[in-house]
Amino acid sequence: MTAEANTGARGSIELIDVTKRYGSVVAVDSINLTVKPGEFLSLLGPSGCGKTTTLRMLAGFEQPDGGHILVNGKEVQGVPPHKRDVNTVFQHYALFPHMTVAENVAYGLKQKGVPKSEVSTRVAKALDMVQMSKLAERKPRQMSGGQQQRVAVARALVNRPSVLLLDEPLGALDRKLREEMQIELKLLQSRLGITFVFVTHDQEEAMSMSDRIAIMLEGHVEQIGDPETVYEHPKTAFVAGFVGRNNFWQGTSTGTGVNADDGTLFVATNPEEHVPSGNDALAAVRPECINLVVDQPARSENQLLTTVASVSHFGDVLQYVVSAAEREVVVLVPRTHASRPKVGDRVWCTWAAEDVYLFSARQAEVVMAEALTGA
Ligand SMILES: Nc1ncnc2c1ncn2[C@@H]1O[C@H](COP(=O)(O)OP(=O)(O)OP(=O)(O)O)[C@@H](O)[C@H]1O
Ligand SMILES: [Mg+2]
Questions:
Q1: Ligand 2 mean position to 45 CA, how many Å?
Q2: Secondary structure of residue 223 in the 3-state scheme
């Protein structure tokens, strides 16, 4: 099914040239996005890139300054939040502290004047979906963060929306609980078949849960695609650095590679971008695509002599940080790797030409900042 074929179906979303400004800040810059019915789409990007603003416009809490938003094929301009076929789950549970779990979930339905008998059936069903039936009489403060967030999801689902908007719903949870909730939410979504638009700045979370990911930067979408595509074929240096990890080298394009400022020569057989010879360019190689070898390879390109600076064990893989001249390179090798160089050893880094990404240096600063913060 194509996105176009689905436009108009229940659970479809379309953003056409949507822009939102706050004074001189362009929070969302002419975004175009189609979400298919039943799709799990993540908006992924660094702080301030416009994720929440996009979600709030979908929910109806903010009005766009330009463009069109369609839900279920209908323009929602002017439609208030409670009349849209969407519900939102926020990062902070925002439950009423004086109400029980069941009362919290029932609240919206009672406001809408849904008959009492129907309210109790729907609340019971929504609590069952998130496995919270047993705690229906608890107050929010008597529950863990994960349990409270399940209640918040139930409170949204009880309205039977065709689209659920989730703004960093797992951001406040510790790592283990977050991973459990990721699996639960994903299972719930595929069971219910409703559309999820899920905001996160955690690339692993986006990768593990989404059908497609829209990677945002400074109010626009850099790239949209399924997790494998955005990982394997990042269209821009920013995406290459934000989704998964990459080692970057700045330099000058040779047309088929990069002559890096540190003297390393990169040859790329599958560049994602063609950068004309002589222009500023970036070469990138993922940590898992670099091999560590003791003997100097018999070639002049795609290799670098380094010294092992540190070795960390991550269970199934070992992370090496090796250094050369003024820079460090991150290398991941499988635990079963034959040779295990030690700190202080001299090793050659080598990589295949098909694993070299080549980008124009448009966003060099952004990428370097991301790389330094390990994002
Ligand atoms: N009510 C507001 N008034 C003024 N500026 C705002 C307002 N809301 C957001 N912005 C600005 O719009 C831009 C996008 O903000 P937004 O909250 O959408 O980012 P985000 O991607 O959700 O970031 P985070 O990951 O930190 O939540 C930022 O520069 C932000 O400062
Ligand atoms: Mg936000």
A1: 10
A2: strand
The rounded Å distance from CA 42 to ligand 2 centre is 13
- Pick the residue whose CA is nearest to atom 29 on ligand 1: 48
Cα 11 to Cα 71: distance, rounded to the nearest angstrom: 7
Q: Which CATH class is domain 3-232?
A: alpha beta
For CA atoms 370, 371, 373, 375, give the dihedral sign. positive
Atom 26 of ligand 1 has which residue's CA nearest to it? 47
The CATH code of the domain at 245-373 is 2.40.50.100
Q: Is the CB of 201 under 6 A from ligand 1?
A: yes
* Centroid of chain to Cα 6: 24
Number of the ligand 1 atom closest to the C-alpha atom of 49: 21
Whether the pLDDT of residue 6 is over 60: the answer is no
Q: CB-side exposure of 120: number of CA atoms within 13 Å?
A: 2
Closest ligand 1 atom, residue 28 Cα: 14
DSSP state of 169: T
**Residue 22 binned pLDDT confidence (cut-offs 50, 70, 90):** very high
What residues are neighbours of ligand 2 (ion), with CB under 5 Å? 52
Distance 52 CA to ligand 2 centre (A): 4
Tell me which residue of 60, 140, 73 sits closest to 102, measured CA to CA: 140
What pTM does this model have?
0.89
Whole-angstrom distance, CA of residue 57 vs CA of residue 219 = 13
Sorted by sequence, the CB contacts under 8 Å of residue 339 that are 6+ apart come out as: 292, 293, 294
Q: Do the Cβ atoms of 52 and 199 come closer than 8 Å?
A: yes
pLDDT in tens, 156-209: 889 889 999 999 988 878 888 888 889 988 998 998 899 999 999 999 999 999
Q: Which ligand is nearest to the CA of 90?
A: 2
Q: Where are the domains of the chain?
A: 3-232, 245-373
CB atoms within 10 A of CB 279: 11
% of the chain with per-residue pLDDT over 70? 94
Distance of CA 211 from the midpoint of ligand 1 (Å)? 25
Verify whether ligand 1 is closer than 6 Å to residue 27 (CB atom): yes
Distance 51 CA to ligand 2 centre (A): 6
Task: Write the CA distances from 13 to 10, 34, 165, 327, integer angstroms.
Answer: 9, 6, 11, 45
Q: Average pLDDT, whole number, for the chain? A: 90
